[in-house]
Design brief:
Organism: Reichenbachiella carrageenanivorans
Oligomer: single chain
InterPro entries: LPS_assembly_LptE (IPR007485)
CATH topology: Double Stranded RNA Binding Domain
Protein name: LPS assembly lipoprotein LptE
Shape: elongated
Keywords: Lipoprotein
CATH class: Alpha Beta
Radius of gyration: 22 Å
Structural class: alpha/beta
Distance between the termini: 37 Å
Pfam families: LptE (PF04390)
CATH architecture: 2-Layer Sandwich
Helix content: 25-40%
Length: 175
């Protein structure tokens, strides 16, 4: 196959892929009539966790939608509307390490951070995609090797990445 044929196939594929305006390389399946999205602040209702979780999560989810769709973010009533809250942040012991000295207490070596986020999604174009759902994800860390206070921001961001991905897929990717 010569370079002209390859170029023709590439251009044809690009035209066919963008002409209908419904699908994207991110897996988003958005009606061409949908142009805007409004994302309200996800308030932190959790008794634990970093104090800036609300601002971090809200900005990260806005950025994710803007980078992975052609939607325009609006403050008011968007064609798609997303709101919710960070409902819980838990620290749970997952594994205990036995202390070699029987007179000392066994300690938790592996701890799990779990974050729960409630999200309400409304698609004004097609309400069959609407949902009100809780998303959660976790990160396990070894307290003997990783200090929570030094790594908490990194752990929370990793958890947020997965929750945002799950919300995105449930809303515009229709998975």
């Amino acid at each position: 196959m010569n370079w002209k044929t390859s170029l023709f196939i590439l251009v044809a594929f690009a035209i066919l892929n963008t002409s209908c305006g419904v699908y994207s390389f991110t897996g988003a399946s958005i009606s061409p009539n949908v142009k805007t999205i409004s994302i309200q602040t996800f308030y932190n209702n959790s008794p634990l966790g970093p104090s800036n979780m609300s601002a971090v999560f809200t900005e990260r989810i806005k950025d994710y939608y803007l980078k992975n769709t052609s939607l325009v973010l609006v403050n008011g009533e968007g064609d798609l509307q997303l709101e919710g809250s960070i409902d819980n942040y838990t620290l749970t012991p997952v594994a205990v390490s036995a202390n070699e000295d029987p007179s000392k207490v066994d300690l938790t070596s592996l701890t799990r951070i779990t974050i729960f986020v409630s999200a309400t999604y409304a698609n004004l174009e097609d309400d069959q995609f609407d949902f009100d759902q809780t998303f959660s994800f976790y990160k396990d860390f070894d307290q003997n090797r990783e200090d929570l206070s030094a790594n908490e921001e990194e752990f929370v961001n990793e958890i947020f990445d997965q929750i945002i991905f799950d919300i995105f897929n449930s809303s515009v990717a229709n998975w």
